[in-house]
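Duplicate of #3305? Posting structure anyway:
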């Protein structure tokens, strides 16, 4: 879009009036691009804050508050089940992607964006008000799991539209950078979730935190819902938004059409995401409980998580831009090679129980996470034609999340229990890194592919 504007401007340099007009158009388009980037970033940040605060609470407090009777049957079983509930929501993300697409055609894109926001925020707030097992009995964990399912359904309807909105309105040579904006909603959401949890942990005693403190981050979601709603109302007024709605109405092909001709790419997009999502959920959910088991305090581990998330954010943006220069495939390959090489040293550093080495381990991990996440929006958009792009991108992402991060914290917990060392978890992520590396290497470099949205 910006390239065409620049071309028009150069052709009319001889006419001052035409030149002024072209410059005005260029300014408007720049404002529209900024508005799109801001809206996609805000939406994904809010959604992932809500999604991640559950994952972190599952690692810290849900076991004793909602699943404590399981510990009477087997030591550590309540912790394992608590972490497993993180993954249950992933099973409903593909359903959310399909339903959001179908309803988006009937109700409009803006209404679906608002609906997914309200579903996620409402479920998060209700978790903050939920009675525990001591108050409600077995109904408490059942309701907790149902609300987690609602979170998963909502997340499934969010990412694909945000990613495509950013990529499809980017200049061809900057798709990677523009596509990285909805991606950095993940580390920003993690920073918010970890920051709020850190603040509460640092200002309450352990008894206060278990009694009522853990509820504050969930109830804080109400504030984010209001902010997100206001931002998305602004996006509705943009011509870019209306253009996206029109494009979306023509791209919701039935699933049979997607899998009839594009099964290979759906499978590849899922496998490409597996290792990144699994390693990411170690940082998001597993390391908090693991770090405290090593003798580190909860606030210090949360601070380390925040440091890792900041590096993840920076590297994700950089990786999107890097993929515009050296290609999407090459950037992914570097990222997965980095994850593979770092896994064993990372856990050896962590097992020392020293906070400084724990921080180093997390920060270096985030470098590989960023390089294997930043180019994703652009690459996935370029792998599918317009008529199946929304479905292909959303379903591939959701399936990759199921195979990758859905049960990664629970698997990590089980591996440590069976082997007595977290180095086994490193081996697990190394295997997944090889799978994702092979999958991305099978993709023909898509950078610069005509997206055909006009």
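Output from current build:
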């Amino acid at each position: 879009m910006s390239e065409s504007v620049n071309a028009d401007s150069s052709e009319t340099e001889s006419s001052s009036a035409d030149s002024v007009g072209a410059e005005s158009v260029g300014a408007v388009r720049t404002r529209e691009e900024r508005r799109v980037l801001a809206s996609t970033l805000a939406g994904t940040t809010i959604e992932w804050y809500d999604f991640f605060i559950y994952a972190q609470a599952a690692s810290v407090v849900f076991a004793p508050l909602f699943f404590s009777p399981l510990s009477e049957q087997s030591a550590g079983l309540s912790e394992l089940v608590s972490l497993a509930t993180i993954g249950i929501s992933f099973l409903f993300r593909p359903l959310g992607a399909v339903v959001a697409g179908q309803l988006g055609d009937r109700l409009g894109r803006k209404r679906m964006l608002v609906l997914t926001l309200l579903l996620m925020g409402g479920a998060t707030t209700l978790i903050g008000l939920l009675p525990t097992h001591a108050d409600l009995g077995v109904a408490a964990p059942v309701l907790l799991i149902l609300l987690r399912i609602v979170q998963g359904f909502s997340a499934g309807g969010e990412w694909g539209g945000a990613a495509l909105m950013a990529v499809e309105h980017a200049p061809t040579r900057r798709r990677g950078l523009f596509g990285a904006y909805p991606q950095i909603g993940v580390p920003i959401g993690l920073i918010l979730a970890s920051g709020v949890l850190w603040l509460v942990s640092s200002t309450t005693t352990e008894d206060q935190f278990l009694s009522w403190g853990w509820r504050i981050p969930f109830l804080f979601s109400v504030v984010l819902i209001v902010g997100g709603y206001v931002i998305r109302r602004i996006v509705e007024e943009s011509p870019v938004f209306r253009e996206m709605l029109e494009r979306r109405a023509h791209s919701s092909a039935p699933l049979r059409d997607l899998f009839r001709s594009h099964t290979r790419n759906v499978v590849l997009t899922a496998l490409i995401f597996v290792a990144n999502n699994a390693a990411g959920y170690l940082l998001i959910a597993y390391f908090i409980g693991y770090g405290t088991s090593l003798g580190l305090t909860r606030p210090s581990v949360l601070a380390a998580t925040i440091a890792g998330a900041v590096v993840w954010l920076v590297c994700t943006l950089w990786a999107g831009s890097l993929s515009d220069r050296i290609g999407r495939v090459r950037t992914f390959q570097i990222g997965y090679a980095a994850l593979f090489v770092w896994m064993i040293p990372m856990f050896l550093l962590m097992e020392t129980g020293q906070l400084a080495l724990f921080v180093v381990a997390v920060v270096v991990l985030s470098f590989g996470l960023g390089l294997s996440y930043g180019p994703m929006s652009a690459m996935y958009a370029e792998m599918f034609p317009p008529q199946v792009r929304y479905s292909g991108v959303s379903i591939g992402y959701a399936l990759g999340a199921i195979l990758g991060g859905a049960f990664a914290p629970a698997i990590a917990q089980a591996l440590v229990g069976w082997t007595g060392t977290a180095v086994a978890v490193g081996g697990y992520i190394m295997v997944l890194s090889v799978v994702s590396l092979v999958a991305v290497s099978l993709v023909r470099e898509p950078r610069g592919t005509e997206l055909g949205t006009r």
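Confirmed duplicate; merging threads. DSSP finds 23 helices and no strands in the chain. The CA atoms of residues 274 and 403 lie 6 Å apart.
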